[in-house]
Design goal:
six-stranded mixed sheet, globular, Trna Endonuclease, Chain: A, domain 1, 17% strand, 6 strands, alpha/beta, 7 helices
Length: 224
């Protein structure tokens, strides 16, 4: 837990028992059922995604006029989807760094379950942009800076309308993906259309793996 909060806040945390503030971090845990003897019950290897629920969560953000309200609706959806994946069990949301200058939308702890996001970073930071237009270079560059300052080798950028530029030419926002990769950092883009096409957690895991492979081969993301 302390390692997760360190990655989110971007600073060294106070020692155990210290009364020093940790910053505005809300830690959430998804519901867990009980197995035999009252212990935790492991989730099934593949869990169906409630597509009606996904549509409802997306619809919650559509009428919102404020960017913050639209973003929060998308965050709720991201939390729902990723906490279904085996081994992804802890999140921190809307966490500011030690200087209150940068905010991480969602952070997940990833145990690397063989049925889940094995070989992915054990701390996954996620940025959510629920915009009607493609997200541009400045927003991707800021997210890359957040990952850099926290020493994270990977981040997930959920942009409902995709990102700007031509992938083949690595223009606009695609230039950030190539530059981050050259620095040893992977930024995976996920769009609304791709989320709407997910039927179960295996679909989500395969999507993220495919995009990682595509980044390594081409230096950017073509699927949007």
């Amino acid at each position: 837990m302390r390692e997760l909060l360190r990655a989110v806040s971007g600073s060294v945390l106070p020692a155990e028992g210290s009364s020093a503030p940790l910053g505005r971090v809300r830690v959430c845990r998804g519901p867990r059922g009980a197995g035999k003897g009252g212990g935790p019950r492991a989730p099934p290897a593949v869990t169906a995604i409630d597509q009606r629920g996904v549509a409802d969560l997306l619809a919650d953000g559509d009428p919102a006029t404020a960017t913050t309200a639209r973003g929060r609706a998308l965050e709720e959806l991201v939390v729902y989807l990723f906490e279904l994946v085996p081994g992804v069990s802890v999140t921190a949301r809307n966490a500011l760094n030690a200087f209150h200058a940068e905010e991480i939308d969602v952070a997940f702890w990833n145990d690397g379950d063989p049925a889940g996001l094995r070989m992915f970073d054990h701390i996954l930071l996620v940025e959510c942009k629920n915009w009607s237009m493609p997200t541009g270079y400045p927003e991707l560059a800021v997210f890359n800076d957040k990952l850099t300052s926290r020493g994270r080798p990977m981040g997930i950028f959920v942009a409902t309308a995709g990102i700007t530029g031509k992938p083949a030419d690595r223009t606009a926002a695609h230039e950030v993906l190539g530059r981050a990769l050259a620095q040893g950092r992977e930024i995976i883009i996920v769009t609304r259309r791709e989320i709407e096409g997910l039927g179960d957690t295996d679909d989500l895991v395969r999507l993220l793996k495919r995009k990682r492979a595509q980044l390594a081969v081409s230096g950017t993301i073509f699927e949007q």
